[in-house]
Every structure is written in C-alpha cells, then in structure tokens.
Design a protein that fits this description.
about 475 residues, mainly alpha, 21 helices, globular
Length: about 475
C-alpha cells in the first residue's frame, strides 16, 4: 500500500521547518557578513534560528496525532512529540549561548549545524526502524563533530574534534554491525518484530554479540564507561554552546533510543543482573556499564581543576545513574532524569560560557568571589550544581530517587540491590567535588576581577535554574508532559 505523501509531509513538517531554519540562517548571515561585528551576527543568527525553531515547536502540536508509517520509519506519539519539543528548546538555548563569545567568524555555518544536529536527533527519537536510527545517528553525529572544532583560537578544539570523530566512527561501526546481526537473527528492521523473533534467545552467542555491539555504540553516545574517552576532551575543547548541546540534547535522544532498542526490540532477552545470579542478556551488560560509569566518573571528577573536565566526568557518572532507570524498566524515571540532567548541564555550560568570556577561563579557581561579581550567576550555578549532586528539593534529587527506586524494584528476589549500593556510594562521594565549586563561589575570598554583566545568556541560565527548582518541587508537571 503506497503511503499518502501529503500526510507524510504534514507529519514531517517540524523536521522540515528545522532544516529550512538551517538554510535561512546561512542566507541571512551571508547577507550581513562584513556589515556587522561577529557579536552582532551571533545575535542575528540566534534570532533567525529561534524564529525557525519556534515554528517547528508550534508545528509539533499543530497536528497532534499518533502515526506509524513506512514500516516504523516514522513513529509519532505524545512521548516522541514532547521529546522533540525539548530538543528544539535546548537548541534555542544553545544558540543564544553563542552570543557570549566570538569564537568563530563562521556564524551562519555554526548555527546551521545546530539546526541540522537538532533535525537528526528529532528523527532519531521518532523512529523504530534500525536503518533510520543509524542514518539519524550519523546526521546528528557529523554535525556535532563539526561543531566541536569551530573554535580556531587554539589547538585543543581540533584535537578534541578529531578524537570525538575517531571514537564516533568506531562506535558507528559497532552499532551497524550490531544492527546487522539483529536483522539477520530477527529478519526485520522493525523493533516490535525483532522483539517477537528474539524472545527467549538470550543464551544465543549471536544475540549476545549483537547486544554487546549495540550497547557499545550507544555507550559512546551517552558517554558511559568504557566508551567515554572522547568526552573530557570534547567538553573541554568545544565551544561552550556546542558542549552544552552535546551534554543535553544528544544525551536525551541517546537514552530514549537505547530504551526503545533494549526495552522494545530486545525485551525478550533481558537476562538477569542480580548479585551472584546473573543470566545472559542485555541487563547484566547494562548493569556492569552503569556501575563502572558511576564509580569511574565520580573518582575521576575528584582530581579535576577545570569546570569543563569536571562536567565531563560528572556526565559519565550521571550516565550510570540514568542507566539504572533504564535497567529498572521505568521509562518515566529515565526520561525525567535525562531531561532534568540536561537542564542542569545546559545551564552550567551557559555560566561557563559567560565566565570564559568575562572572567578569562573555566578554572574552578576563577569562581572565587562570584557571589559579589554576579549574584545572578552565583545563584544559578549553585542551583545547577546542587541539582547535579541530587540535593532536595531540586529536580536532580527526584531524578536520582526515581532511578534508585526503579532498579530496586527490578525482579523481586533477584538481588539487584548491589546497584543501588554502588549508586548511593558514588552519589555521596560526588558531593565533595560539587561542594568544591560552591566553596569557591560563596566562601573563597573574592577574585581580582570586576563585576560580571550576565546579559541574555545569564538570564536564560537563571530561567533554567528556576525551572530546575520548580520541577524538583512539582515533578509531576514534567512527568505528565513526558507521558
């Protein structure tokens, strides 16, 4: 049966709007190149991109229907629609963070890559077809690799982008091989068909190989151990807006698609991750990756003196916490954790962008006296850090609690409590490096610099801090939205 292409185009209207926004920002920047300063072009590019992405956000709710077209290539549901809205919002925030730094003369190209990465992530969360998943991964990935290398003021961005690209290529190959094995074993590219074909075959060596390859590929996307080696350099070398988007939008889409692959396509071969009672399947693989990520990410972050690298290793640990919710089979807990972590991480990178532009670096030592130089930034950064640490009543506390509860309820009597013990211990140790940041902000003697004007990016960071607080006090508001 041939699809109705008018209906298909209507359902793809938000993604089309995002792609058109990429072309629009290129044309507008070309028109005003040489007539405005780089800062002015950044503001103009962010404005054009905001208009285009705002249209995409409106189109997401213009035709609120559920659909499953072209063999699962396009799957629309309330959850995918709302996640696409979150991705669009995060890309708008990243665009406005660009206005804090003149890190490149190629403003239109960078803004266009933000839009193309957003389009790739939107396609990624809206499909249940393995081939489309891979193509969308590569569209988003190539855009993010290029965004990482845009700052030409030193060698670090190029080195970071090269490492990101090389590890990304290896991860893409692993993912493709895994998908090939799944297709050969299940005879279909659709996740529901694979779930029926592979049920009960957890002990099959080919199924195990496919699971390891798929988890390896997506472990790179979410920066989980041992697939995290690109993250510290990418977070440190990329322009702050690019790092913010890598830490937020990329993670949300990665976790959601990994959920659909494991809890959807491979739900019949989950196995068991209980203490001393593990059985073959993807659950023990995810459990071991989660435990390694929490422990290594936390310990590595203790030795960092720069905010960017600390955020990178913190992201590794948070990938482990989120995997607990995935292993526990709670989609609301996973999405709540991913979205609230994205808010805090994006806001923190917004503050970092301002500090690098106005205070000369991202070192933790540069935070001294921030309470006096910019109370707005000091309060905002405090909210983000405490949320990442899991302190109530902020959203990060509810996210961690949901993940811990989800995994503790997994398989009654199967001894999954060891994961909760590892998570609690890691979370307690992480308080040390988060409190180091707050000590510099609120207790350390003031720095030699003058006051810091927050600007538009500062007020956006403050809005994200307020959202983090409100979602912690009323988590059901976000859970209803995600459901």
């Amino acid at each position: 049966m041939n699809p109705d292409y008018r209906e298909l185009l209507a359902l793809l209207a938000p993604e089309c709007a995002v792609v058109l926004a990429a072309f629009a920002v290129l044309l507008v920047d070309l028109r005003f190149r040489g007539k405005r300063t780089i800062e002015g072009r950044m503001v103009l590019g962010a404005t054009v991109l905001t208009v285009g992405l705002g249209c995409a956000a409106a189109l997401l709710f213009w035709n609120p229907v559920s659909a499953d077209l072209l063999g699962g290539s396009l799957v629309l549901s309330p959850v995918t629609r709302h996640l696409k809205f979150v991705l669009v919002a995060l890309s708008i925030v990243a665009a406005w963070f660009c206005t804090e730094s003149a890190f490149t003369r190629h403003v239109g190209e960078f803004m266009a890559l933000v839009a193309l990465a957003t389009a790739g992530l939107m396609f990624l969360v809206g499909t249940e077809n393995l081939l489309v998943v891979f193509v969308a991964l590569e569209l988003a990935g190539v855009s993010l690799y290029a965004m990482t290398a845009f700052d030409k003021r030193g060698p670090r961005p190029a080195e970071a982008a090269l490492r990101y690209f090389l590890f990304g290529g290896i991860a893409a190959a692993a993912t493709l091989y895994g998908f090939g094995l799944l297709y050969g074993l299940g005879g279909s590219l659709r996740l529901p068909v694979l779930a029926a074909a592979l049920a009960g075959r957890g002990g099959d060596p080919l199924v195990q190989a496919a699971i390891v390859l798929v988890v390896s590929g997506f472990g790179f996307k979410i920066a989980a151990v041992p697939f995290h080696l690109w993250a510290p350099d990418a977070y440190e070398g990329a322009p702050a807006p690019a790092a913010a988007f890598i830490a937020s939008g990329s993670k949300i889409a990665g976790f959601f698609v990994l959920w659909k692959l494991l809890q959807g396509g491979l739900v019949g071969v989950a196995g068991n991750a209980g203490w001393k009672s593990m059985e073959p399947g993807w659950l023990p693989v995810v459990a071991l990756v989660a435990a390694a990520s929490m422990v290594f990410g936390t310990l590595a972050a203790l030795a960092q003196t720069g905010l960017r690298r600390l955020m990178a290793y913190s992201a590794v640990a948070h990938a482990g916490y989120a995997l607990l919710a995935l292993a526990g089979g709670s989609q609301p807990a996973l999405l709540y954790y991913a979205v609230t972590y994205a808010l805090a991480a994006t806001g923190a990178f917004g503050v970092i962008a301002i500090l690098e532009n106005r205070a000369g670096g991202d070192s933790i030592a540069n935070l001294a006296g921030l309470r006096e130089r910019s109370p707005l930034l000091a309060v905002s950064l405090t909210v983000f850090v405490l949320s990442l640490a899991g302190i109530p009543p902020l959203a990060g506390f509810i996210g961690k609690l949901g993940a811990f509860v989800a995994v503790s309820k997994l398989g009654a009597g199967q001894r999954h409590g060891w994961l909760v013990v590892v998570a609690l211990a890691s979370s307690c140790v992480s308080l040390y490096y988060y409190l180091r940041i707050l000590r510099q902000v609120w207790i350390a003697p003031g720095g030699t610099g003058g006051g810091i004007r927050a600007g538009v990016a500062g007020w956006i960071a403050a809005a994200l801090a307020l959202a983090t607080l409100l979602l912690g006090c009323d988590p059901e508001r976000l859970l209803r939205f995600l459901r």
